[in-house]
Amino acid sequence: MNKQDLTATILVDETPKEAFDAILNIKKWWSENIEGETAKIGDEFTYSAKQLHRCKMQLVTLLPNKKIEWKVLENYFSFTRDQTEWVGTRISFHITEEEGKTKIRFTHIGLVPGHECYDVCEGAWTDYITNSLYCLITTGTGYPNSKECETEVVS
Description:
The protein is α+β, with helices and mostly antiparallel strands. It has helices spanning 16-24, 118-139; strands at residues 6-12, 34-36, 44-49, 53-63, 67-77, 90-98, 101-109.
């Protein structure tokens, strides 16, 4: 991790276990369009958002109530020329206790200013973490992307 990696931090009153469990419940705060397993080391899952973004992740670190980390295996953005910006990067959640509260530090390791997608990704990740994940942890309701249905075109 370097100082330029995209980072967002939240502080909640709930326990590290509650934060950890919420982070693992990806469909409740990131997207209902998650396919695959997301709970144990080696699990692989895909994320998709319309025709804008698709990626494949692997769960590589799982330290109960302390840390979760995914590695990006594949990625596609409709709005960038370089489709490799995310490939090989890691998405990390560090959970610590500070003065009776739980701190969650999200870092997209390897996503730095200068990448084509940085500004869009910064806005999106910041919203997912500081709004959707925060609300899931504190109220039990997150705001993930809605499940997309496939439309059958009839001519």
